Amino acid sequence: MLWIEARRYRFYDAFRARIRMLEAHFLVPMVMENRQMLQGEWKKLVCEDLILPSFKITRLEAIGRRLKRNYVFIFILIMVAWVTKIFLHAPMAMDRRAVVLPGIARGTYSFLADRVHLCGNTRERD
After folding, report:
1. How far apart (Å, rounded) are the C-alpha atoms in residues 13 and 27?
2. Residue ranges covered by each domain of the chain
3. Most buried among 46, 94, 107, 114, using CB within 10 Å?
């Protein structure tokens, strides 16, 4: 899902860069009625970007920006809620496994631990 979000953000960043170039080099001179500010290579750059669009940032950079700007707050909130839940219910726990693995029944944990142990032993015999 994060790859899809990064791809969407890369498209957004490409369009944002194009619009920013138009705002800075076309709209400002038109509003200020200063025709001398319209000079430069910005027209050529906008035309090249319209003909052959390209991303301005890499995929990893887009993922990093999305994680930093949006998802880090969600992860922190979930982590705080989870740790709070563990500490609120820890005194009621019968053994340490219930505190370490909340949400997994003790029998399920024991069953999985036994299966992993048995699978490890059968591989050693081969």
Report:
1. 20
2. 2-92, 97-126
3. 46
DSSP state for residue 33 in the 8-state scheme: T
Q: What is the pLDDT of residues 46-68, one digit of tens each?
A: 888 889 888 999 999 999 998 88
Local structure of 49: helix, strand or coil: helix
Which long-range contacts (C-beta less than 8 Å, at least 24 apart) are formed by 43-46? 45/21, 46/18, 46/21, 46/22
Tokens of 99: 């505190």
Structural contact between residues 57 and 10, judged by C-beta atoms closer than 8 angstroms: yes
Would you give the DSSP letter of residue 53?
-
**CB 69 within 8 Å of CB 5:** no
